Amino acid sequence: ISKENEVTSKNLINTMINWKNLIPSLEILHNDQLLINNRHELIRPIFRMLEKSLNETNEFEQKTYIHQLCTTALLNLYTQLKPDECNPDIFNSEIVMECMRRTNDLHTTQQCLMLLSKGAQLFPEKLISMIMAMFAFVGDRLVRKDDLYSYQVMEKTIKTVIPSLYKEKNLEQRRPILAKITHVFVTSLAHLPAHRRQDIFRMLMESIGQDECLWFAPIQLFDSILLSPINKKNEETLKKSLIDANEQMLNSFNQFSSSTLLISLTRILNVLLNLPDQITSK
Fold it and tell me: For tag attachment on the chain, is the N or C end more exposed, with fewer CB atoms within 10 Å?
């Protein structure tokens, strides 16, 4: 890539693009035998191409294919680059999420999820905040249109992206990340249709490890209810929220083995026993 093209790419978002003519250049990037110097410099322009195609007001025939080419090219580049060549500030998870929101093509969604999964491996702190948005986005789709496609997106998010956040961590490093993940799920329950919650909860726990993480969920759920400003002001609302949460947790826990339940209940009991008998106001 010449210096002139590099400068031009920085203004890409403000230029008109002939998408049909751009396709061969993007297809070349899928050639694993291609030798490219300073390949990390391609990442920002490709993210801009993806953003430009998403913001294009006029629909064009190659739009879905452009999305697939951009996301696949980015995935290949991040796979080939060394960790010290990867700049977390350039990885635009919001654009990848926006691409997922706007597509009804399963292959494009899979490419976005794979790219987010790679990003989660490289930049876990950056991606963990996106998990809430992903739960909310897919949950909203399930509420509006409870179809197999939306459910598959949620399933692939849980099975591919989330494990990438902690895959290479030891137990001590992994636990706070797993706690954040379960907290995100618990606080996103309202976005999921009631008849899907148990399946998705079981899927999440099986993915991150039910023996290690199941006990997080009820503590975090009841904690979020008790600390909710709305519930603090209205005793009836608080009572109803606690009853609903209790029923939700009982139904969810019934999906797991006796040994897993025993491990989780023991850990919950240890937390309760270590709580102060009385809250002292300062």
Answer: C
For residue 7, pLDDT beyond 50: no
Query: What share of residues in the chain are helix, strand, coil (percent, to 5)?
Result: 75, 0, 25
For the chain, give every domain's residue range. Answer: 1-74
The amino acid that residue 82 corresponds to is K
Token pair of 103 as six digits: 């597509």
Residue carrying structure tokens 């986005």: 137
CB 17 within 8 A of CB 60: no
The pLDDT confidence band at residue 277, using thresholds 50, 70 and 90, is confident
Name 198's Cβ contacts closer than 8 Å, sequence gap at least 6: 251, 252, 255
Output the six-digit token pair for 89: 């500030």
Cβ-in-10-Å burial (0-12, 13-18, 19+) of 98 comes to middle
Beta carbons of 228 and 179 less than 8 angstroms apart? no
Examine the pLDDT at 13 and tell me if it is beyond 70: no
**Across 26-35, average pLDDT:** 79
pTM confidence score:
0.69
pLDDT given at position 3:
46
pLDDT at 260: 95
Measure the CA angle with vertex 69, ends 123 and 67; round to 5°: 80
